[in-house]
Structure prediction request, 597 residues.
Amino acid sequence: MTDLAQDVAALAVSPARAALRRFRRNGLAVVSTFLLLLICLACFVVPWVLPFSGADADFANLSAPMDLFSAHPFGTDDLGRDLLVRVLEGGQVSLMLGIFGAVVAVIVSVSYGATAGYVGGKVDMLMMRTVDVMLSTPFMFLVILINVMLGQTNASLFVAVIIGLWLTPAMIARAQAVRLRNQEFILAAQAGGMTGGRIIRTHVIPNSLNVVIVYSSLLVLEAILAESFLSFLGLGVQPPNASWGTLISEGAQQLETDARLLLLPGALLTLTLLCLNYITDGLRDAFDPNDR
Amino acid sequence: MLSLCLRRLIQGVPTILALAVVTFFIMRLAPGGPFAGNRQLPKAVIANMERVFHLDEPIWQQFLRFLWNALQFDFGPSMTYRDYSVARLILEGAGPSFEIGLLAILLATVIGLALGVVSALRRNSWIDYGAGFICVLGVAVPIFVIGPVLQLLLGLKLGLLPVAGWGDDWRFRLLPVVVLAMPNICYIARLMRASMLEVLRTNYIRTARAKGIGMRLVLLRHALRAAVLPVVAYLGPATAITITGSVVIEQIFQLPGIGRYFHRRRAQPRLHAGDGCHVVLRHDRDRRQHADGYGAGHSRPPNPP
Prediction:
């Protein structure tokens, strides 16, 4: 290999790396990423390090006020449970549900959209009409129906969150699959005798995935928002387990006596959503081919 | 125009029907029944009650009966509130709910449009950045956080507004409407800004300016009419967000609306109130979406770009 070829090879950058480079130039997005990682780290490590858990009541310190240098830096609630640990443990639930919800929603929506788009015809119409009907049904009704069917468990919360999320990416994935359907490599696969199911699995889904993947960081945001929304209404995580939504709901009820119980989980949720919002913007600017 | 409206309305019928089917059968297939929670009753009493409520008929007959009654706005008696019919609960709750919801959508549209237009016209100025930041906040701060915080700040600390409740005074409406409008203000402002920027770049706007028409007239006559289209199309989803949001708002501010039945009636299987609210709200939403279709047909720009 000549020197010149080596130089060119060194200069050549893959699209993903170029996008990453663009992302890194976006200061707000980078700061948000670090902040979000910090929040995740705090939620998953700090409660594990501390000697007490969020369920442990400290009867010597009921409703302790905020004091950064005491055993309970943000005080305790009226049952003597440490607020900081409770908020961080609630964060575990919210973040896990957000991330897993987004992952499952992407998988479901891409499989669904790719199948509808690739098969086309009546199947496509039926599948997409179903999406339309669900999209125009207010979220609350779907949630209540799921609650009636599955009972009030964490599983039904998870299903409800995904039901609320997968519709829009399914439409995006379908549009991409329709675009792919008549391309040469698909025709080649058909000519080579590949079955429809395998074409969808090996060609259509991977090529639809990259369109949805940028959208998926927005899905994490929406999943966290939906989870806390439902938990706030009492349709989500059930006590004694906590998530940010239930903590905000409990805090809102004790607004007059102790606003701190509302403000700490509210602030952490807001901060997380803000970070996710800026990361989504950054990713879209970095990966969107139309905007280059 | 009339035929467009009619066609849209007819298109809504199968959707409503599908929804009624799904609601009805899921409610019926769910385990438990309206009498499951009661103390043990003699078989004969249960059989009697089932006959009164037509629960002993085959399910398809029950469904037809439900449809027929629903068409006459009769959803049967409430299973939770004694001596109340579901229709009456809906009618009584509808007043505050619609008032808050309509005002919120109106407020969101007016403020959202204004913010969007101003930030598009003064692009990259401090106004634009300020509006952009407010929009991000509006999306990132959930209404169930900002609601209680405003209650705390304006109601409890400053004592300017009532914390919660309902009455004839406009001050009871201010906080719920503003909080409910907040997410939509942001979405509408973002949409309007983007579409306004796009329209201002088009040739026909430049031509109009080149002909010597003043900026104000070009904006009013040409730019706004074209730029408002995505916002009109968004008003359908906005209604959905508002309905979902109003459930929370009615809980936070203790309003006597329809929304409170949704969380209150959870875990009570086979309640007619749920069916009723469901279909009514759904119907209203569909009608509004059709109104949007109408609006979109109406405000098409005179000179399509």
User: Anything to note?
Assistant: Confidence is low (pLDDT under 50) at residues 264-274, 283-305 of chain B.
